[in-house]
Design a protein that fits this description.
Layout (H helix, E strand, L loop, with lengths): L10 E5 L6 E6 L12 E2 L7 E3 H10 L4 E9 L10 E6 L12 E4 L7 E6 L12 E4 L2 E7 L1 H9 L17
Parallel strand pairs: 2-5
Antiparallel strand pairs: 1-2, 3-4, 4-6, 5-6, 7-8, 9-10
């Protein structure tokens, strides 16, 4: 699962040049030192920010329908990074969590969802043709099937944190 961290105050929306559509502009979090931009950028907004190589890999190998929206990232000196970046929005969710075996705190505001999950278990409703999806009970996180995970790892892409199903997690 992709873990997403950062701080909401580092996000804002700004228009591009007058003839272009709106662009999402993000600032690097002050708590994240360094200038290296990962292929998957962590944030708290629930957005999956990816580099062009990650976008190409997902477009080619993921079975999920994904909407890619260009975005910009400013470094700590408030200059735009040169890397081409996108918001990768995996459309839809999959209801495949075994609630009897999943350990987590249920969301009192959104019935049927979890606020957090510490141990995840799946039922038998996962379509074997699906290799990337969002959980219906915790849509902020992406689930990669083992074969897609292997492709990402073979491509030496950075920024993703994978956990095995059944292991203790913090989703």
């Amino acid at each position: 699962a992709l873990r997403e961290l950062a701080d909401r105050r580092y996000w804002r929306r700004r228009p591009k040049e007058s003839t272009e559509a709106q662009a999402y502009v993000f600032d690097m979090a002050a708590s994240r030192p360094g200038i290296v931009v990962a292929d998957a950028i962590k944030n708290t907004l629930g957005y999956t920010l990816v580099s062009a190589p990650m976008k190409e890999l997902l477009a080619k190998h993921a079975t999920a329908e994904i909407e890619f929206t260009p975005c910009k990232l400013k470094n700590h000196k408030k200059r735009f990074v040169t890397e081409e970046l996108f918001i990768a929005n995996v459309l839809g969710t999959l209801d495949c969590v075994d609630r009897a075996k999943t350990v987590g705190r249920e969301d009192p505001v959104n019935p049927g969802r979890y606020m957090s999950i510490t141990q995840l278990a799946f039922n038998d409703r996962i379509n074997p043709a699906v290799n990337l999806f969002r959980l219906a009970v915790r849509p902020k996180y992406l689930i990669f099937r083992e074969d897609l995970k292997a492709i990402v790892e073979a491509g030496a892409l950075t920024g993703l944190v994978f956990s095995r199903v059944g292991d203790k997690v913090r989703l």
